[in-house]
Amino acid sequence: MQRMLSFFRRYAATLFFPIALIIYDFAAYLTTDLIQPGIIHVVRDFNADVSLAPASVSLYLAGGMALQWLLGPLSDRIGRRPVLITGALIFTLACTATLFTTSMEQFLVARFVQGTSICFIATVGYVTIQEAFGQTKGIKLMAIITSIVLIAPIIGPLSGAALMHFMHWKALFGIIAFLGFLGWLGLLLTMPETVQRGVVPLSVSGVLRDFRNVFRNRVFQSGAAVITLSYIPMMTWVAVSPVILIDAGGMTTAEFAWAQVPIFGAVIVANMVVARFVKDPTEPRFIWRAIPIQLFGLLLLIAGNLLWPHVWLWSVTGTSLYAFGIGLIFPTLFRFTLFSNDLPKGTVSASLNITILSGMALAVEGARWLWFNGGRIPFHLLAVVAGIAVVFALAGLLRRVRQHNASLPATEK
């Protein structure tokens, strides 16, 4: 009987824990993607200024940054399991609270609290996946998780546009709250614990020392720069595209939703290629082969908008090609940044997410300013500059990872 229980726990950790994490992550994505086609309706429903529409995304990102400083070190000390389960419950309650908002200010506060799901998922959930499985299996499992979760940006806008013909936008958050509850229940029943509790005492000085060591680590610095810059072209498009395509471009919500399909579909295809066909996603030659795809996408993005400024096809096509290129290597970049050091992984992940989300919040606000004050070309130039900077930062990351691996004992390589 004991052996059967032990087998079930291992099987649950291998299969059902990733599924529970996917449900939680999927629901977190839907809070942005399901409502994006109707965000203009939300603003108008509360009689607010349309310029506040992108703030729904930037405040969500700010919420994702708010607890990073605490959750990483906390999960290193008391365990990953209690922290992630608590996060899933907070997310479910925040989505439920959105049903009772009566002003744009209340809606944005709820969005901020919903954004804390990023802290729990990225800082604790993804680290647990990487710790529970080996390097290659962990990278491929993360690629599979990302592929499934990124269905949300595809079906989210389409479903949101369709559902808003039959129900109020608040009802969409009720659906998301139910998914959040399912994710919480699944984590409660199946999530394994990957750290030994109580080995490291929880103290302010210890937490500060860990963060200081992480931010001084050269591999971390390079990895955080690469990942943050890599996100900018996609996240600025996600945040500002409702204003660009619906408010300024005159698209319907359904047309807007279909316009997003190629971008997120490209990331899904890229992750499935990694999971199914790439033997070693950490091979430098494979990583460098993805860079020309990204750069060609950015070239098409800016050239198309210069030559045919009235056709939004170039914005979507260029961003989609870039998304495919970065999707090929993103799980590997995360793994390199997290594990090419001897630092506490919860603190490393928290530091990485603080850097990413700070950069994203600033980039979204900068992109919004560029659009309203400069128009299409300055807005897209931000993505081009970030994409070119990725190449130089990636070269530094791969060099430092190679140096770290060379310093390891033969038994650890």
TrEMBL record:
InterPro entries: MFS (IPR011701), MFS_dom (IPR020846), MFS_trans_sf (IPR036259), Sugar_transporter_CS (IPR005829). Keywords: Cell membrane, Membrane, Transmembrane, Transmembrane helix. GO terms for cellular component: plasma membrane. Pfam families: MFS_1. GO terms for biological process: xenobiotic detoxification by transmembrane export across the plasma membrane. The chain crosses the membrane at residues 12-32, 52-71, 83-102, 108-129, 141-163, 169-189, 219-244, 256-274, 286-308, 320-338, 350-371, 377-398. It is found in: Cell membrane. Its main location: membrane. This is Major facilitator superfamily (MFS) profile domain-containing protein. It comes from Trabulsiella guamensis ATCC 49490. The lineage of its organism: Bacteria, Pseudomonadati, Pseudomonadota, Gammaproteobacteria, Enterobacterales.
